[in-house]
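FW: tagging you since you asked about this chain on Friday. Here's the raw sequence from the shared folder, copied in full. Didn't touch anything.
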Amino acid sequence: MPIDTPASSSPGWGSSYRLIAAEKWKAKSAAMGRGATQALVEYADPRPGMTVLDLASGTGEPGISLAKRVLPGGRVTAIDLSSELLEIAAGRARQRNLANFEIRQADAHDLPFDDRTFDLATCRFGVMFFTRVEQALGELRRVLKPGARACFVAWGSLEQPYWQSTMKIAHRYAGGPILEPDGADPFRFAQKESLAGELRSTGFYDVEESERDVPWIWPGTAEEVFEYACSCSTPFKPMLARVPEEKWQEIQREVRAAVERYRVGDEIHFGAKVVLASGRA
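HL: got it, structure written out here
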């Protein structure tokens, strides 16, 4: 197929294809996600001296942004299942001379930290993929100090420009479910108060949730948008694998036309609806 064979790549979060894509697109991906990152950082309200845990950090955000905000005296520990993605994050932190940013490979369902360790926790587009969300939130509550906040940003509905212009178009050619019935679901908490409900059920208090419109801007071409989406949007891999080989050029033409509707100068301005939620331990 014309793009870098996304359908044949491994569906795993730490697959070699995804790691190559993460390195290739790290600057433009960071630029596209900046609006969501900034929204979460402002929402979390980090203060100098805080000890922060960032869950499912991937290539480093919002942990890197938080590390700047908790100086002097504060530290950020970034965890992820993928040590390779964390190494990318560590490199980005070194480039910014952030000695207070540290990485640790760990599973959110079994955190390797003592009780009451952290002043603040964040998670950017990760909570949707916890396989046992109640257990993971319970672990998070355990490692937070009493009264400390846990702050999350999750995707809103599938029905928004970025996904409509990429995966929804591919899905028309693939057939079957757009996401596996028992697989990872990026939109798991799109329903109002669903994430807040999970927080309350695991003992968090002062829980709040709101929907927010944030910038979602790709600083490049429509072709890049689709290649990035196919290579890094792991939950859609099974659907992409069903696309007939001979249909990829047709899909690319349709995606290009759909994406170009959001062009502003040299950038693609999609916008995104996200869910912000928090609770106190």
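FW: Confidence is low (pLDDT under 50) at residues 1-17.
HL: agreed, and The first helix runs from residue 16 to 24.
FW: great, closing this out.
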